[in-house]
Amino acid sequence: MDKVQVIIFAANFIAIFKNIVVYAIIGRILASWFTMGQGRPSNRLIIFLHDITDPFINLARKIPHQIGMFDLAPMIALFGIDLLGQLLVSFLYSFV
Description:
Number of strands: 2
Shape: elongated
Structural class: mainly alpha
Helix content: over 70%
Distance between the termini: 14 Å
Order of helices and strands: HHEEH
Oligomer: single chain
Number of helices: 3
Mean pLDDT: 90
Strand order of the largest sheet: 1-2
């Protein structure tokens, strides 16, 4: 593999990873609507979504993230992941 193929592979990997995390956060948001007031869920899929998305959402919770009763940490995490992913991919493509 030459340098260009490695850079394209890394850019595609970052883009796919970003999409997986974004979909996991969206799934966590949707699941939270159906499990309101239950605390930590017992469903394996929802636990898996929490385990994947907790690092990103906990990082977003370190900045002010509430408007009234609405928790905006998942939206901040989505914005940050999208921004960081686009910056990394464009940085990698600048070497091609």
